[in-house]
Amino acid sequence: MSPADEAMERARQMRDKAKELNEAAERAGDPKERKRLQEKAGRLERQSEQESSMGSGDIYPSL
């Protein structure tokens, strides 16, 4: 597997995990827990975007 493929796979896994966290946040009864899960999902989504950019050869990942 090429480094680009590995980066794309990591990005996909992060997106999947972010989706799971967002779904868990929707089910969370505690507002603090919901916010924590949503923030963690957001961080993973941003990281997955960076991984995708790097995997596609974009040398300037968005911040």
Task: Describe this structure as you would to a colleague.
The protein has 63 residues and is mainly alpha-helical. It has one domain (3-55). The protein is built from two helices and no strands. The mean pLDDT is 86.
Number of domains: 1
Radius of gyration: 14 Å
Biggest pleated sheet: none
Mean pLDDT: 86
Q: Please state the oligomeric state of the protein chains shown.
A: single chain
Strand content: under 5%
**Number of helices, counting only DSSP H or I runs of 4 residues or more:** 2
Order of helices and strands: HH
Helical fraction equals over 70%
User: Which descriptor suits the 3D outline?
Assistant: elongated
Distance between the termini: 27 Å
Number of DSSP-assigned strands: 0
* Structural class determined from secondary elements: mainly alpha
Low-confidence stretches: none
Secondary-structure blueprint of this entry?
Layout (H helix, E strand, L loop, with lengths): L2 H25 L3 H25 L8
Helix pairs in contact: 1-2
Could you write a compact summary of the structure shown?
This protein is an all-alpha fold and 63 residues long. Helices cover 79% and strands 0% of the residues.
Annotation keywords:
single chain; 0% strand; 63 residues; mainly alpha
